[in-house]
């Protein structure tokens, strides 16, 4: 554009000189002097504007920056959808995961044993489970690590019915369970709880017909149909209420009665091989969890309405009645790690002969904020 401008100016000067020369020739009889009048043709005063020759500067706003793509995180629940998963569900519904740059995609397992198996194989990014399951899996060679706690107390207990135990004495109750048929829904129920109930249970012969049974997700039906008389690891927020609808009174025996150490009832586990590569991702994940947790603690009614609106399958009286108690058990700082609990459970496993030697806590669990 500058070249066009210079060309226009040069043309203007040349025309002016030619006009002056012609005028001088025409009036040759009149010598030129400083006082002579010089007239330029009218056309020289008018410069036609041509957009192609006029230099211009166009100032336009910059194109808006596209937001960075969200990082996908696949997570498998420990059980069918339940209010105990509220922190994860609300973090997704409130856009808290997205705010941290991640897109959490969850799914329910077809079998309770699937989450840890798929996580150990690297088929999923995260899995939910219980602290007790983490310990057992680690001693079987699975490279799993706890990165967050959702529920700080056990959600399972030994559950039977009033038809089988009538005493309020914990010792007498345990004795009356010895001849009953046991069922379990988790690996811990089979390997840790049933052996603690009575030594006879684990050595029952086929002649007695009391071999412990795997119930998968069907503990309520197994009890109501008398398939088993005791569930070693029933969810005590839901199973007693389910039995009540069938006219059966549930009896609950807490794990502490069996001298099983207190432990985290629901944790988030990652594959240990991902801890360095995806450290920032796990920090973002637990930040979103903490934000969701505090929001639902501060707004329990609104949080419940949000859950049942987004997930209508949760909208029933059993879940609604359990909601307040679950909130009391929710971890306010999901990333925070109670190292004493993990050491105590390792000691328990060693004393029970389940493990050859205790693992160090850092082999089992981390606080993502401290890496």
Automatic annotation (TrEMBL):
UniProt keyword terms in alphabetical order: Signal
Domain SsuA/THI5-like intervals: 83-301
Origin: domain of life: Bacteria
Signal peptide: 1-28
Keyword Transferase part of the UniProt annotation: no
The keyword Oxidoreductase belongs to this UniProt entry's keyword annotation: no
Gene3D superfamilies attached to this UniProt entry: Periplasmic binding protein-like II
Protein name: ABC transporter substrate-binding protein
């Amino acid at each position: 554009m500058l070249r066009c401008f210079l060309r226009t100016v040069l043309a203007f000067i040349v025309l002016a000189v030619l006009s002056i020369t012609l005028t001088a020739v025409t009036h040759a009889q009149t010598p030129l002097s400083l006082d002579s009048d010089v007239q330029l043709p009218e056309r020289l005063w008018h410069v036609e504007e041509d957009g192609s020759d006029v230099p211009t500067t166009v100032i336009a706003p910059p194109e808006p920056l596209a937001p960075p793509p969200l990082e996908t995180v696949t997570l498998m629940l420990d059980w069918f959808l339940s209010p105990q998963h509220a922190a994860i569900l609300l973090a997704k519904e409130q856009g808290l995961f997205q705010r941290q740059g991640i897109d959490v995609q969850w799914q329910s397992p077809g079998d309770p044993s699937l989450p840890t198996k798929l996580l150990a194989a690297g088929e999923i990014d995260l899995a939910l489970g219980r602290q007790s399951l983490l310990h057992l899996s680690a001693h079987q060679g699975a490279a799993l690590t706890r990165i967050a706690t959702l529920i700080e107390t056990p959600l399972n207990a030994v559950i039977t019915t009033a038809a089988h135990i009538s005493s309020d004495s914990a010792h007498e109750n345990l004795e009356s369970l010895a001849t009953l048929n046991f069922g379990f829904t988790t690996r811990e129920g089979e390997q840790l709880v049933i052996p603690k109930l009575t030594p006879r249970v684990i050595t029952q012969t086929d002649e007695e017909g009391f071999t412990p049974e795997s119930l998968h997700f069907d503990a309520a039906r197994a009890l109501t149909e008398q398939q088993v008389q005791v569930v070693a690891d029933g969810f005590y927020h839901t199973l007693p209420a389910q039995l009540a609808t069938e006219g059966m009174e549930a009896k609950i025996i807490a794990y502490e009665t069996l001298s099983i150490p207190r432990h985290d009832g629901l944790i988030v586990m990652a594959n240990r091989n991902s801890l360095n590569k995806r450290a920032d991702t796990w920090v973002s994940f637990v930040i979103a969890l903490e934000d969701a947790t505090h929001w639902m603690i501060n707004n329990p009614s609104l949080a419940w309405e949000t859950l049942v609106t987004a997930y209508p399958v949760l909208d029933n009286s059993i879940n609604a009645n359990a909601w307040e108690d679950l909130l009391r058990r929710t971890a306010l700082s999901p990333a925070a790690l109670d190292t004493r609990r993990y050491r105590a459970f390792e000691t328990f496993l060693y004393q029970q002969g389940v493990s050859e030697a205790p693992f160090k806590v850092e082999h089992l669990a981390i606080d993502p904020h401290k890496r």
